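Retry 2 of 3 after timeout on previous attempt. Resubmitting structure tokens to design endpoint.
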């Protein structure tokens, strides 16, 4: 049902009818105050001396109320006025569907219903009085009205301990009946259902546990709308609830509003600390739903949530904000990120606002799609522009679109600008404006380096902008921004001077830049300038056009011809991006001493400069696609260089030997430098280098063994070169994580399981291109799963055919589980029953390692006896027989155990129980034994030949890698198709000829086997 707020047809929420003499002082005034404090618009007529007939004003009040409350007191029936009101109420109930709720105040409901008892006596007395006065009372209508209303569900004061308790019950009930807290949302909830349900599903999964969740996104993305929808759908589950708009209120005001809304009574708070205590005390233990909408600072959350201890079982707090950091600080349980609407949703929402239907008018279809494209899925923009364009002509539509290209819509901008204005740090505002003009689509690390060089503290600044939904990080670490936020930032820059672009802090629009350079109207205000002309452009400008731009720090000139003295360019430059640089070398008077990044892709450079330059701060040098560049510069004057990109420089034939002196160099990209024959030996001294790309260097035929000196090298890419052999030294690298070289591509860990499989089963070799070399023949080949992720795999593993075991060492349990999963995938064996095996018997196969022959014979005898008597039962393996052995069993192909404390193992025996078939026996199908130590994060693998002839050296190899308390699982693997029922692992401690096996329990048939037999037989 709708409240008066949502249905303008109602003048009041509640009309109260009562007999003043016996209820006003003690009850009605208290009820009226409580209803008003709860936000329920209530009409009460306090006139004690009432006329003979109810007036027109009172009739309008009754008719204009959504609900009437009738307070039946003992003397209610003695008032003709009250009974006439009651008749009018019942008429409205019948005619208009008005709600009527009775309250029986110290009177029996049945007495009202039947006009009996003291209530009936007063009613009869009124009738007699009317007759004596010669009036004509509505006797039957009064009776019918009393009977009708008394039959409605209501409240009986006799069931409450006090008037206060009764009032509280009534207000809560009326609040729910009227649906007073049903929030008004958008008329067109396009795409909301799935989004809302995702959050509600999370709440439902908490199984009654209290939770705090956040809704995060940029301004206008629909955070408040989704929060209202969630609130409306789940609010009736909660005893206490409230929706609080947080953005424009003080902390005490917010606390008062929260308590008043949730408790449905006016609450006064005198200090923030007092408010926190009151919230914790009053709401603790209550099942409460609270929405805190548009929270802008953590202090608001502290004031409203405190330490969150009051959020008890079943309570839910939902917080909407543009700043995700607030949610992280509060450590919320779940964050729902608002995503832009997709194209279809956007078109539907826009059309509903612009045309009143889900699809655009045919004659405006293309224009509608252009508006939708401009909005980029932002609900606010779609609603505002749709509403603005409704019933407009096609010419107006075209005009609006043209205007939007230059000046963003004011309503949309006002909403979006809240986030920008909320930045208290001027450096953060500068970073935002720089990004929206020059760096959208650029690598985050690249932009951070440049803006740090400008003194903007970009590491934290960019993080803050991401947290506040002003920018985002997209695929490949590129910075992104919603186009409407970009336009908002650029509009802020324009505000400084609407008619003189030369006074703006940043220039990015081609027409404005051309105007400033042509008319020489630049000023010191300009910090950044970007002009991107087409590749075929022949426009030429004078360098003196930059003479007044002394504060210029960011310069982008793509395919721009500049003549004259380059000394006019700013000495404050930190970023120079000049694709198609028009000179054969950089002039000496072009001052680049403070530059952080130089990007001269597609230049006609032959040399970077004629004389070596000292650029102390240069970190990034990109000369890619410079087809005439013949050699690199002397690097001795570039001590800070971190990234050198010379991709696709086909004339480059020499890399200067001074490259070996660069102590901070992280990346070298020489891809497709087809004339480069060799690398300077000094380059192998680069201890900081992480990435080296030589792909397409057709004439490079050798990588030196000195490459091992590149101790930080993580990525080596050298496909399509003349290199025929991998340097042997590379296998000892401790850092490389990815390699693409000599036909191998990817991390080594992707190949290890295949190699191990081929080692365990040589006839099923899955890597035909791997050939063994004469390496060590020791019984253990250690494999570091993180550090040795590359190299010639055959050399790395050596002559595996001579090895008895392989130990794979992992760094984390997650890495261990992934490797184990891959290895076991190669060695699958069946572990389940099927009907074809029911006719076969159980057999056992023992594998023993260590020195305990006599003990083994005793154990073997016990197992044989168990199998003979048990047939298809589970309990056929001997259990612990202290002090001789400790038993651990597992269904399928593995068993788990913990290495005991204070006991010395002398050996281990594995017992494999399997279903025998004429085709397969355990000895023939055995593949390997895999021992996984979860504590030490290693996997030890013994191939078939080793398993059937374990020796003392093998035992020492195992025991040396086990420690007290280690958690271990042993897998015995077989060829596919072999059916294993159970594995027993026996940790052997002692020898005794006289020891006896404990009697086995009576056989009991496995329930699963009984089920299968029932089906088959």
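Retry 2 succeeded. Sequence:
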């Amino acid at each position: 049902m709708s409240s008066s707020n949502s249905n303008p047809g109602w003048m009041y929420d509640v009309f109260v009818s009562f007999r003043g003499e016996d209820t006003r002082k003690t009850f009605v005034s208290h009820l009226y105050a409580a209803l008003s404090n709860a936000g329920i618009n209530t009409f009460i007529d306090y006139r004690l001396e009432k006329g003979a007939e109810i007036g027109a004003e009172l009739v309008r009040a009754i008719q204009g109320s959504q609900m009437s409350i009738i307070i039946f007191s003992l003397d209610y029936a003695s008032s003709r006025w009250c009974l006439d009101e009651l008749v009018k109420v019942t008429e409205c109930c019948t005619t208009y569907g008005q709600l009527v709720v009775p309250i029986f105040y110290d009177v029996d409901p049945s007495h009202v219903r039947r006009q009996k008892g003291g209530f009936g006596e007063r009613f009869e007395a009124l009738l007699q009085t009317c007759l004596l006065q010669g009036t004509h009372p509505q006797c039957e209508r009064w009776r019918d009205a009393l009977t009708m209303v008394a039959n409605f569900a209501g409240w009986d004061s006799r069931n409450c301990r006090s008037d206060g308790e009764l009032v509280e019950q009534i207000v809560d009930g009326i609040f729910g009946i009227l649906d007073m807290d049903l929030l008004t949302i958008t008329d067109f909830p396009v795409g909301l259902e799935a989004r809302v349900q995702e959050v509600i599903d999370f709440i439902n999964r908490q199984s009654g546990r209290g939770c705090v969740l956040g809704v995060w996104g940029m301004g206008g993305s629909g955070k408040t709308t989704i929060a209202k929808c969630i609130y409306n759908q789940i609010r009736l589950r909660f005893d206490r609830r409230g929706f609080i708009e947080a953005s424009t209120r003080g902390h005490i005001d917010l606390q008062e509003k929260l308590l008043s809304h949730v408790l449905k009574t006016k609450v006064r708070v005198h200090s923030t600390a007092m408010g926190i205590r009151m919230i914790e005390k009053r709401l603790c233990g209550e099942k409460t739903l609270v929405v805190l909408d548009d929270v802008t600072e953590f202090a608001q959350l502290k004031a409203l949530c405190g330490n969150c201890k009051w959020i008890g079982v079943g309570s839910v707090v939902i917080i909407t904000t543009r700043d995700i950091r607030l949610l992280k600080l509060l450590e919320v349980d779940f964050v729902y990120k608002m995503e832009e609407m997709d194209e279809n949703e956007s078109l539907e929402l826009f059309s509903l606002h612009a045309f009143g239907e889900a699809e655009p008018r045919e004659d405006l279809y293309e224009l509608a799609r252009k508006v939708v494209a401009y909005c980029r899925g932002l609900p606010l923009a779609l609603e505002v522009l749709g509403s603005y364009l409704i019933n407009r002509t096609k010419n107006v539509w075209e005009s609006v679109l043209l205007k939007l290209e230059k000046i963003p819509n004011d309503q949309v901008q006002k909403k979006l600008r809240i986030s920008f204005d909320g930045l208290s740090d001027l450096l953060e505002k500068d970073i935002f404006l720089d990004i929206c003009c020059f760096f959208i689509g650029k690598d985050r690390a690249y932009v951070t380096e440049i803006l740090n060089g400008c003194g903007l503290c970009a590491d934290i600044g960019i993080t803050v902008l991401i947290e506040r939904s002003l920018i985002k990080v997209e695929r490949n670490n590129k910075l992104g921004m919603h186009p409407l936020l970009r336009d908002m930032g650029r509009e802020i820059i324009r505000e400084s001077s609407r008619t003189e672009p030369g006074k703006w802090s940043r220039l990015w629009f081609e027409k404005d830049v051309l105007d400033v350079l042509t008319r020489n109207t630049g000023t010191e205000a300009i910090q950044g300038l970007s002009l991107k002309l087409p590749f075929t452009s022949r426009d030429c400008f004078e360098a003196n056009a930059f003479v007044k731009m002394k504060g210029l720090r960011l310069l982008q000139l793509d395919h721009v011809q500049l003549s004259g003295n380059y000394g006019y360019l700013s000495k404050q430059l930190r970023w120079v991006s000049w694709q198609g640089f028009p000179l054969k070398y950089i002039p000496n008077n072009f001052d680049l001493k403070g530059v952080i990044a130089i990007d001269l892709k597609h230049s006609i450079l032959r040399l970077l400069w004629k004389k070596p330059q000292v650029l102390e701060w240069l970190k990034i040098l990109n000369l890619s696609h410079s087809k005439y560049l013949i050699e690199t510069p002397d690097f001795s004057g570039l001590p800070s260089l971190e990234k050198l990109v010379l991709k696709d420089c086909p004339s480059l034939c020499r890399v200067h030997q001074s490259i070996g002196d660069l102590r901070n160099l992280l990346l070298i990209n020489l891809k497709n430098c087809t004339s480069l024959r060799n690398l300077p030996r000094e380059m192998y001294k680069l201890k900081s280098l992480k990435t080296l790309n030589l792909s397409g260097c057709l004439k490079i035929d050798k990588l030196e063994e000195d490459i091992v000196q590149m101790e930080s090298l993580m990525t080596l890419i050298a496909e399509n070169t003349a290199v025929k052999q991998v340097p042997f030294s590379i296998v000892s690298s401790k850092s490389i994580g990815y390699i693409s070289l000599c036909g191998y591509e990817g991390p080594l860990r992707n190949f290890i399981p295949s190699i191990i499989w081929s080692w365990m089963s040589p006839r099923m070799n899955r890597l035909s291109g791997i050939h063994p070399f004469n390496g060590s023949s020791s019984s253990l080949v250690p494999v570091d799963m993180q550090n040795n992720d590359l190299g010639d795999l055959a050399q790395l593993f050596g002559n595996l055919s001579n090895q008895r075991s392989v130990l794979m060492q992992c760094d984390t349990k997650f890495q261990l589980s992934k490797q184990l999963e891959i290895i076991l995938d190669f060695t699958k064996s069946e572990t389940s029953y099927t009907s074809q095996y029911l006719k076969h018997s159980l057999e056992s196969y023992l594998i023993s390692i260590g020195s305990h022959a006599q003990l083994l014979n005793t154990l073997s005898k016990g197992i044989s006896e168990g199998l003979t008597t048990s047939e298809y039962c589970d309990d056929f393996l001997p259990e612990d027989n202290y002090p001789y052995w400790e038993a651990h069993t597992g269904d399928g192909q593995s068993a788990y155990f913990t290495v005991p404390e204070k006991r010395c193992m002398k050996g281990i025996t594995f017992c494999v129980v399997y279903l025998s078939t004429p085709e397969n026996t355990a000895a023939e199908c055995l593949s390997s034994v895999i021992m996984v130590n979860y504590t030490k994060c290693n996997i030890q693998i013994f191939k078939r030949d080793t398993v059937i002839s374990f020796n003392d050296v093998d035992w020492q190899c195992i025991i040396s890698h086990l420690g007290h308390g280690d958690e271990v699982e042993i897998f015995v693997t077989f060829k596919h198709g072999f059916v294993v029922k159970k594995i027993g692992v026996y940790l052997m401690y002692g020898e005794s000829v006289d020891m006896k096996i404990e009697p086995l329990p009576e056989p009991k048939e496995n329930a699963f086997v009984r089920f299968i037999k029932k089906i088959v037989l």
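Attempt log closed. The chain is about 35% helix and 15% strand.
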